[in-house]
Specification:
Mean pLDDT: 92
Shape: globular
CATH superfamily of the largest domain: ATP-grasp fold, B domain
CATH topology of the largest domain: D-amino Acid Aminotransferase, Chain A, domain 1
Low-confidence stretches: 418-431
Structural class: alpha+beta
Number of domains: 4
CATH architecture of the largest domain: 2-Layer Sandwich
Strand content: 25-35%
Strand order of the largest sheet: 13-12-9-10-11-14-18-16
Number of helices: 14
Length: 435
Amino acid sequence: MAEPTSPHLLFVGGAGDATLAVDVVTHALTQARARGLSIHVTNQEATLAATPTVTELADEASAVDFAQRGASAAWARERVAAGERFDIVFGVREMAQEAVAEVADAVDAPGNASEAVHRIRTKDEARAHLAAAGFLQPQFRVCADEAEAVDFLARSTGPWVVKPRDAMGSEGVTRIDGAGELPAALDFLPERGAFIVEEFVEGPEYSAEGVFIDGAPHVLALTSKELLPPPNFFEIEYVIPAIVPDTTREEIESQVTAALTTLGLRYGQFHVELWWTERGVVLGEVHIRNAGGWIHRMLPYVIPGLEWFGLVYDDVLGRPIDRSALKPVRGSAIRFLTPPSGRLIAVEGWDAVVAHPAVIHAELAVAPGDVIEPHRSVGNRVALIAVGADTPQEAQALARKLDASVRFVTEPVSGQGDEAVAGQQPEPATEPVTG
């Protein structure tokens, strides 16, 4: 009698070449290995070569461009026709999610419908779909140019947010209070195609992190967020689980799970952004992937034993999942440090942070001589400290204490202050600055 072969995982999109991206995929593939899965990774050729840590965890790696519509699905069909099989199709990169859905459909593996993934990847389509279903949404308009944006401002209530139709990590997102600030916000967009202008939502911001089990969404935890003041949306703190009353948490979870079902999503992980307002939950962007910002390391601390990616594999393989164990019992917090912009002279206190026993992860991405840019999006993050504690309140307090203990010394860089920061001008510095 022939021995059964191991289940085959096709991991579409691999990892980006950033430290966080590689760490996420390392966890995902390690959890696949622990389940005896055979792993085939695909990625764009250049990124595949730049991420050897990922390819070393795979049994096979192939260069396939997930950004080319239909290319991944066509490649997968050819491999299946040649005798390869894929039992699980999965991926974690935002820009690869439509390819993941197309491949799953092509090889008859569990997955989300392509049209559902395309809907949430196109922000205005997701907003319109949710609004039509009765979920609270800000008024918005897809604009082709500045004139259309000015017209929308005149017909709606400010302040407003200007954002790309398709981006991530708060890239190109700006709050404005009037038409006079619109040109700078448009200049801040990553590209000058169609863009979205929508009403700014007042209220604390949260996100829901979760996984689909048997086709139904299961919220693992809520994350609270702290942001720098507008006009941009640089996130400086996450706390898990969010410190909110049980009634608020239950209402948020109810709205999130209902929205995911309404959007036709049924597979993998999810990360849903939202606001808690006087009117209740206002849903933001919906992502069918894990959260960024090192939340993939924070969640297993607050839910001991959790393997977030492994839950996806177990679900496909029909392995038992104890949902009662998928609840936070501890707290975690992360701070993204915001030193003053300029040329870095020195960093003081960092070694003590790294040595602290409660630190889950700490990363310093700059060294003396580097230029620190203004903090506008996740691409400008230069340092972070993630900690764990018995409660989220204790974790938050410790993370803030460690953040305050680090001292960055910078000096002005000629011309840096000339950049428009979406309506704000940095104050001139004439001597070293610390922060």
